[in-house]
Specification:
mainly alpha, 69% helix, 0% strand
């Protein structure tokens, strides 16, 4: 039987997008307190348990509606296809590894700045998407073009705009994590 109607087709990506929206709306209603306390990663000491929580939750926070919609548009374009291809668990693993990796590098390289937002995950998805469908031993031309356009642009932006290097770092690291998992997920046997 063929059912018609709306389906929750990408549980990890849709849940992430809806959680991020709820956090943004609640944070705006609380004057930013929620965002600052739980969804922005900043140096607060390794003895503070919230530091470890924020290593994961900073990707759910967004500074504004515009910041949120920019990230979610790309996330919702790439994520469902990736979740269908690799499964919810693998995609969640990519997201968690991206959050922790970008968070740790941020704390070590830019301890005086807070970071929040899903742009690292977005870049991970972009690079992972460009590898999808590849075979073992092959480097897709789309990966090279995407890496040059997106990551190359981020490196140039970081070099030219010192005060925005924090977000460029998340983009670059996210892209690297996505590429790593893309090659990790490639089937090793030829059909």
């Amino acid at each position: 039987m063929n059912r018609r109607g709306i389906i929750y087709n990408s549980p990890v990506v849709l849940t992430f997008a809806l959680l991020s929206l709820a956090i943004l709306l609640i944070s705006q209603a609380t004057g930013g307190w929620l965002m600052d306390r739980y969804f922005t990663l900043y140096r607060s000491g390794w003895t503070n348990p919230l530091t470890y929580l924020r290593l994961f939750t900073h990707v759910l926070g967004h500074a504004s509606g515009e910041h949120y919609s920019g990230n979610m548009m790309l996330l919702l374009l790439t994520g469902p296809m990736l979740e269908e291809k690799y499964g919810s668990r693998r995609l969640l693993l990519v997201m968690l590894c991206t959050a922790v990796t970008t968070g740790l590098l941020h704390l070590f390289l830019f301890p005086d700045y807070g970071v929040l937002g899903a742009s690292g995950i977005v870049f991970a998805f972009i690079l992972l998407s460009s590898i999808t469908g590849s075979r073992s031993g092959q480097i897709p031309l789309t990966l090279i073009v995407v890496a040059v356009l997106y990551l190359g642009g981020e490196v140039i932006d970081a070099a030219l705009a010192a005060n925005q290097q924090v977000s460029q770092l998340s983009h670059i690291i996210g892209g690297a994590v996505g590429a790593f998992f893309g090659y990790l997920f490639i089937p090793r046997h030829e059909e």
